[in-house]
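Readers outside the structure-tokenisation community will struggle with the description of the input data as it stands. For illustration, here is how one protein appears when written out as sequence plus structure tokens:
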Amino acid sequence: MAFETLLYDEQDSIGYLTLNRPDKLNALSQTLMAELREALEGIEANPDVRAIILTGAGRAFSAGFDIESEAGGPDGEPLSVDGRRSRLKYNIETFLMVWNLSKPVIAAVNGYALGGACELVQVCDVKIASDQAMLGEPEIRLGYGAPFLITPYSINLAMAKEMMLTGDIVDAHEAARLGMVNRVVPHDDLIAECQRVAHKIRNIPAIGIKTTKLSVNRALESAGFLSALNHNLELMTQFDTADTPEHAEFARIRAEQGLRAALAWNRAKFE
């Protein structure tokens, strides 16, 4: 499989899927999301692939959804409420492809995993972080909501609320303590540790892996996970399209001075 924003390779029944926009910190653009769907469809149809290692090129796993890509439609105009809802729904459905994939996905969190990328990490089946990784959901500080509501199911309620209401970012060791990742390893050992886990999975009968993943997923779904995602879609559509003074000021600075200046204005409020 050849892609513009992804790299894909297979070795010894393990698929290696790399988010490949290092100059943009692997931000999740519309093109990347479409290619991720295509890659996952191909992986699901390939019986030779028994496990996937998902990581990012360069110094980040991913900085989250691409603000420039997500801000408007093909004509550059701001998305309508219905357009924003459709975009959010598409992204949720793409992450659910990871959730529903019959082969386990191992996240190799090599650096920043923020916003939607933090949620992408958590939807993977095994999450192993480099000691250089940082995770968090700072999108609320930009006036956007968390599109894929998995954090309250990954960590305890109190910490999930604090993280999601403040936009705080934590280091890899704190993320492991909270349960966002399984464990932390030295940066240079990250892929080797993910391969060690993948080799274990590869040696177990595929039917056992498939049904066990499905069973664990169904347990969370029975606790209301999918229902929560659907409710969150409607709430975040309202949040993302709300007409607030903060949104208006961000849009004004962006139009007059560019996105970098608007982001700097926003960051300055939280220093």
Observations:
- Residues 81-100 form the longest helix (20 residues).
- The radius of gyration is 18 Å.
- The CA atoms of residues 149 and 228 lie 7 Å apart.
- The chain has one domain: 6-240.
